[in-house]
């Protein structure tokens, strides 16, 4: 930042929400007044043309009404304004205004006022040219060496140079190899046009070559035009600058030499007439505009360069002479003589901030006022600090993350799930194998008793469930009196039949678990009314479930004991039916008025089956990492072969390819094959992670029944075993769960204070294998069996004498009976209070609406 600011001489704001660019500013004696004072001409993209003649009474005054000489609405966007000798028969200055499809030349004149309102100015249209092509920019000068008049050259968007000899159209020529238009300038000393092409090179075209080249009535030349008498348009010289140009300016302060200044994105260049570099300067900031002007030193040129840091730098050739700060980012800068003051710097921003300033050495320094000093009372500070710490501690204990309140909520959220499926399924994939995928409509109702703002409703599900819309925003928001955004949750359950159909029970299965209860067995027809057929015997003790996708689960209720068995060929498929069974049993006995109902699990913990799913998931992660490394190597090899082939093709002397083309084709096929393998592995990894989450839910459920854990203890287990909603290569399930379980083992489940003192590694990396994770999970179950208590504090409860789980009595196979019934289910199921719920491949996930 500069110590000195640009001294504000006069400034104003142009219009409201108008936009400007570098061609919208011009300084000239446009009204041909006798005093020769310059006027400020400004055009905007909104179509307004304004002419100012500042007369501040004192330095820094804003614009007065009499400073605005003329304001006209031209109704078309103004791309560029220039002042020159554009009318034949006179050498008076006229104003040329370039629109996108029109070029207009006006005369500006003033009439002496007879009253106190002062002089009156008017603008009269002399002539106009309707353009056949959309214009981009223009330049003017004495093309071809004409005397006493200026010609205009307009560059179109598609690369055509259109030359106008005042009131008449001369010719049009297309630039060769054109892609996008660049800045355009005219050099009177060499009689040539200079521009910067899309190839990032400065190009010069002689006017005589343009005049005698083939006429460009059409973009594509025909064969007859190519063979005709017209000459082909040939560039005079080129110079590659390696970047796009913002502006070009031709400077000629004496007849001996002229210079071509080009402002790039990171450099500005000074070129000779023949295209050779005179000097260049690398800029440390992003420039926005520039203007070369004469220097007091012989043989040097000064340049004003504005940048996007609100700075204006003055260079003498390549030496920085001055830097000053502006109140805005300039897009155009000019220097002129205003109100008998020479060298006034006029800058214009893109939002219409017009300022006339000069350079000065009077710094604007801010001096802070003196503050009354008083002695600090450290005793009072300690008391205040303790009170604040106590308030923070109480808030953290009572409220947790979100502020809780016992008063009536300002916003209530209720959800109603339709009892029937949609007649036309809204599912993306209508079929999964041979099964049709249903859809159900969920109605969410918001009720507010005060005016609220910006309420956002989010519905979260995990695959395989999908939503037609998951985000809703309303223009009212729920805030408590303290101004803290609040979150309201509404949890609801979906029908089990959304992903599960009645199926044929199976007598044999690879995986079985048994749930014990303390009450007589209940008919499965009462628990699952939509999954069994009514018979003479209301005591249905066997039921089959068929998941969408093909897997099957069988549920058996013992006739003689108080046990239920769930069995399936897939271990992870057991979770959903087991969870549904326990929830529906609890709801059934609550309706009967029974309060002491309890479930338990006394069988052996199925850790071996669980570890097999962990190993399969970890194996897919390792495989995916290897495939990505191999794909990266093949991609590097592919690019290296491409570079070598490109070098051979560019070589003027042909050389044999030495089977590089064959190697390129083979490498390309390997890259495609590896990319397909990576994509296939990602799909398998996603399915494996979903199965692993289902199995994890089942293990947590069994541990809770086995040790009779409370809801808070089960929440701790879920936080440790299910920390991720999505599995990635950077942060995977194995290392995250291992760190969480290790923390539990060294805090609340530790045997001694020595274990609590051990520090965990703060960096999570993918492990070499899963042996340590499986060891920690086994140790966790062992600690819980020996009386360990899960809690958030490090003080563990006193161990209690517990018995390790043993075997369980099998349910006789003779109890197996086949029954089925078709009936819609309106049963719903709940979940813990996380914002996003976990799901597995075949199960129904809880949906939760969140408004904030």
Automatic annotation (TrEMBL):
Q: Which residues form a coiled coil?
A: 371-398
Q: Name one GO cellular component term.
A: membrane
The UniProt record lists the keyword Coiled coil: yes
Q: Which domain of life is it from?
A: Eukaryota
Q: Where is the PTHB1 platform domain?
A: 495-602
InterPro entries, A to Z: PHTB1_GAE_dom, PHTB1_N_dom, PTHB1, PTHB1_CtH_dom, PTHB1_hp_dom, PTHB1_pf_dom
- Residue intervals of the PTHB1 N-terminal domain: 1-363
Query: Keyword set for this entry?
Result: Coiled coil
GO terms in the biological process aspect are: cilium assembly
Residues covered by the PTHB1 C-terminal helix bundle domain: 709-784
Region listing for Disordered, in residue ranges:
817-852
Give residue ranges for domain PTHB1 GAE: 437-478
Span of domain PTHB1 hairpin? 604-707
Q: What is the recorded name of this protein? A: Bardet-Biedl syndrome 9
Source organism (scientific name):
Aotus nancymaae (Ma's night monkey)
Higher taxonomy: Eukaryota, Metazoa, Chordata, Craniata, Vertebrata
